[in-house]
Amino acid sequence: MPRFLSRLVIAGSAVALTAGLITPSTAEAAAKPSGRAGALTWAALGDSYTAGVIEATGGETEPHDGCARTTLSYPEVIRRRLGPLLDLRNASCSGATAKDVYQTKLTPLGRPLPPFGTDPDAPFPPVPPQIDTVSPDTDLITVGVGGNTLGFAEILKACIELGAGNLGKGTPCKDKYDASLPGRLNQLRGDYDQMLGALHAKAPFARLLTVGYPHLIPEDATRCRYGDLHQFATFTTGDLAWARTAILEPLNAVITQETAAHGDTFVDLYPSTAGHSVCDDDHWLDGVLTSIIPLHYALVHPNAKGQAHAAALVEDAILG
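^ thats the sequence. predicted structure below, dont judge the formating
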């Protein structure tokens, strides 16, 4: 039995039995991780889609370091559901790239995110690379990252501005960015490969799960209303269709391929979130705004429903 599964069995048994009924055996003592006794150590790494960030995913957890991890983000949902089985070390951070996971320090922005506003407690000091949370005794690593390496937030902002300038016509964002995408995807592939390699080197016995991105844009982009701040604001219909097929789907494809190359498990959120995009009635992602009154920013992130769905799929992968 693989080390991770055997530890999970032991941890589950420890939860089921009371201290008055058993005495610790040598095997149980050897199996206890360096964190909370009887629990599997889990490092949750990633960007804002892991951290939560937006007010639609609850209040911020401690420490208040600008990374904007929230109470309804999927790591925190799983922490509450699995209780003593897992000892969570949540290092996810808004704005993180793949390099910020394994190599570089990130200066977080807090919430709400610029350019629409700044966190009242900003500026924040840099946070260390997320890999610092991982140790040789870590049992489980989940990582959801890649969009910032590809420059998705930059492109999103530009598409909204260009769409407004073109009064909703044409594909001005595609015209500006399409030629740069092969290079961006190659950069992502290289950084993702190095990230997974570094995580395996740091925790050679850990089980590693990568988490993809959900269905932000519907298959039929005409379902999105031009100018609607609850959706993609002034993104043109043509640019939305392009962004889905030229950015989001290739982003998930690169993550899938690199995950397979390292022998890890990919948690694919894309198929099951179809029909729950930003522009669908039962949307699991919010658009530029969650609400206008009161003003709550979302900047195209999963809401509580989206995070709960991610939690269910990641939890299934952990226990599967």
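The beta strands are 40-46, 86-90, 140-144, 207-211, 265-267, 285-286, 289-291, 296-297, 301-302.
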